[in-house]
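ok trying this again, last paste got cut off
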Amino acid sequence: MSKRLKIKAKSEGTLVLDTQGLSPHVDGDEGMRARIEVAQQSGRRVALSALTPLEVRRSGDAAKRLHFLLSRFDVKPVSDAVIDAAEKLLDTSGLDGHECLVDALVVATAALCTPPVLLVTSDKSHIPALCKAAEELPGSPRVKIVNV
């Protein structure tokens, strides 16, 4: 009698790209390409909010490259869960929704991804406060920042 083995895919978490994570990659930055490649080889999913490509819009050949890259990443929709989490992040952090809405949605998206979560960003003002606020969400998700 043979035994069936259940093989579970090992997940090493998620690398989430904000605008400053995706934009350099679209523009051919070798450092960002290498960072993403290492993450994927180690089993991390590469994800981003559906809003991020709108901030990174390109035309011509760069638009084709953006479209190709998006086909390889997990583009997360702005779901009710993400909106609810973003609202809580803004409330907890005390940040203004008008100024920080997209950042709150990006961090909320990251907070709902498979941990451990790394968020690639260059933002040093709003994103850290929102990531700290994420620890107050159900499950106390931790979103670690990778500055670029």
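PB: full thing came through this time. Strands lie at 14-17, 45-49, 74-76, 117-121, 143-147.
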